[in-house]
Amino acid sequence: MDAANTPAPHPQGGGTTAPPSTTTSTKVAGEERVWRAGKLEPMPIRELPDAPPSIHLLGPTVFLVALGVGMGEAYMWPRLVLVFGPEIRWLFLIGVTLQAFVMLEMARYAMATGESIFFGAARVFKPLMWFFFGVAILVYIWPGHLSTGAAAFEEVSGVPWVVTACIGLIVVGILFSLASVIYPLLESLLGILIGVLVVGTSVAASLVGQWSDVTSTLGGMFQFGYFPEEAMSAAWFPVLVGAIAFAGPSGMQQMWYTLHLRDSGAGMGAHIPKIRGLRSAGQQEEMPSRGFMFDTDNPAEMRKWKGWRKWVTFDAILLFWGITMLVTISFTVLAQTAARESPGVADLIRDGDREVALTAMADAFASAGAPVLRGIFLGFIALIGLNATLGLFDSFSRGQADMTYHFVRGAKRFSMSKLYAGFLWGVITFGILILLFGPADGPGAILDVLAFLSTFAMGTYCVVLLLVNNRMLPKPIRPGILPNLVIGFGAVFYLGMLVYSLVRFGVVVG
Amino acid sequence: MTTNRMRDLGQVAVPGALIGASAGLAAGGLALIVGQSVGWAVATGVALGLPLALLGGGFSVLLGMGIVTPGVFAPAGLYWFVGFPVARLVHEALAGLLIVGQPALPPDVLGFLAYQAMVSLGFAIGFSWLHERFAPGWLRRIRQGNPAAERLYAFYLRHAEAQWQAKENRRRNRGAGQGLGRLIRPRTGGRA
Predict the structure, then answer these.
(1) How many beta-carbon contacts under 8 Å exist across A and B?
(2) Which of A112, A199, A232, B41 could form a disulfide with B28 if both were Cys (CB 3.0 to 4.6 A apart)?
(3) Domain that holds residue B52
(4) Rounded to an integer, what distance in angstroms lies between the CA atom of residue A4 and that of residue A381?
(5) DSSP state letters, A262-293
(6) Segment B19-37, tens digit of pLDDT
(7) Residue B192 domain-assigned?
């Protein structure tokens, strides 16, 4: 930590004057040591808790996996493989690896301060935070994931997708409102759903795939630079841009992950109370008005910090990167099996819109020797839709409530629980209205809106991440050159593709 | 091994065996939903569910005997790296036996095993994930008079107690106002 973070030489002196830098640490007269970051309230120095032992297999990454293993992995990338071959998967590798770095860097700020990355953005420049507040509303009020999952469920069960989607929305709202403490409920629920999904996809892939499918899938991940001419067309380039953005947790999901880290008590998040459900909102502890910092001059504290970094790296590599890769490899193997059995599927996908492509892929799976594959594919799409909805609705409400509570004047008289419930039921009500009276062309159009804004938010949060971690954290725990380079590359990658697509084809993402 | 010891370990094996069995049976169930014949679905379910249940139970027993430490991924990964391909090989042979009365092996056995070994890592993550969820609850029920279950449960309990203690400490600190910081802004020209 900067020299100013050492105990003041005159503890009872008349106060200290902070050096004129953006970020300093100092000891306030007669009070306690604080870490100053930006223009907002300084963070008091507190003890960093010990990192959990290795038994803590299931960290808050469960949310990122639930959100990340979504339509991109199960549908968009297998579809691209069917059209362009497995060689196109090198772009997926870049997308997911980039996301793993983003996850680690988001965790750096959240675990060091107990603050969300939104708070960090506000410390740099408050309008940045309001930008994300607005984007979250524009992007995530659309019930795209649930409606696509419900559409898949309709294929299997015959129940109209609007009915399933509306019931699903209400069930999610009731579930989170009745939960005493929301985080443990969600972690348990998603843990079981993801466990079933991972075991199920592995078994399905093991039944229908071949060694050659896996080798071509894996080999395709390293065909850096492969870009067929057709991919550069106005029809497909925007689709590719969207698919890269959908590789792993897209849009603002990484930012929300910082709130889940905090609520799970990771790092300095241990000093922040958990959010309670509406039913027990009265028991909600008072939220501090800012986060905390640990003493980075203390070697014992730094040892604990390294323990936390190890813990979150384990989560990032094994659980997030590993599961995302495995699920997508499994689905790609299924897709390749389908293509082998039905060579015409690529043309069907070229000609058709999203819903037709979804059905075409399911039919192709069915024709790949076993009709069971159609049910498996559609069942998993439905399960992924439910997973993503649980995670997204909770995350959206959590993020908006966090920003409202801390930065909207007068909002503190409502508890965090009530704000959370307000945003949750707000998004549910809007979702039901859209499903009943909204765009008549179904779930596909809703997902398209989401894809564009998601990509834009991702490029922007890479820039914010660089600013927050390099300016708001004490020097000993700032990111090194490699993470900075990778995150910088992320910003150029997402925003560059978006701008190129817009300039060259007049379309942003597909 | 005494009968009592075997009974104890048999009880400990239940969560892993159930996860393994359900993984196998899921394939059979889905086959029924999409219109496969009952015989085909049952054959797939049994032929895959049986070896996976035995292996899943075996993994729980290793935990109960203290050979494998709970919550660590590497042993589970290695176990299923070998076990899953074997289960699939048994499935192929057994399904052939049940459906056409003659065991059948895949044409390229080595390639088949290599492929299954790769897929096994995904299965291992899902299995560990679910096992960590279900095992502690089951062990709590059977731990009376079952030393293997008691020892394994005590491991989970110590972890849960440590977490609970840490949570209580944090809550106390917050209750005492320490967690909220009781911050007083500096009176001089700081940037707070």
Answers:
(1) 194
(2) B41
(3) 2-183
(4) 54
(5) HHTT-GGGGGSPPPBPGGGGGGPPPPPSS--B
(6) 999 887 776 665 555 556 6
(7) no
Closest CA of chain B from A498, distance in Å: 33
Buried b / exposed e over B53-88, threshold 16 CB at 10 Å, is bbbbbbbbbbbbeeebebbebebbbebbbebbbbbb
A contacts of B69 (beta carbons < 8 Å): 55
Residue B191, in any domain of the structure: no
Instruction: Give the separation between CA A268 and CA A48, rounded to whole angstroms.
Output: 6
Instruction: Give yes or no for a contact between A443 and A148, defined as CB atoms under 8 angstroms apart.
Output: yes
Could you give all domains of chain A from N- to C-terminal order, each with its CATH number? 35-505 (1.20.1740.10)
Measured distance CA(A176)–CA(B95) in Å, rounded? 44
Using one digit for the tens of pLDDT, what is the confidence trace for A2-49? 433 433 333 333 333 333 344 455 545 456 788 888 888 888 888 888
Distance from CA of A65 to the nearest CA of B (A): 12
Q: Residue B179 pLDDT more than 60?
A: no
> Which alpha helices (H) appear in A342-442, and where do they start and end?
345-351, 354-367, 372-407, 416-437
Cβ atoms of A291 and A272 closer than 8 Å: yes
- For residue A24, the cross-strand partners are A36
A227, A339, A367, B156, B192 from A80: Cα distances, Å: 12, 12, 19, 44, 52
Answer yes or no: is B188 within a domain: no
Both structure tokens of A86: 């497995």
Q: How many domains are contained in chain B?
A: 1
Least confident of A304-308, A426-430, B170-174: B170-174
**In this model, does residue A113 exceed pLDDT 60?**
yes
Q: Can you tell me which residue has the tokens 């900075």? A: A484
H or E segment at A27?
A: strand A23-27
Residue B190 resides in a domain: no
Provide the token pair at A180.
């005493």
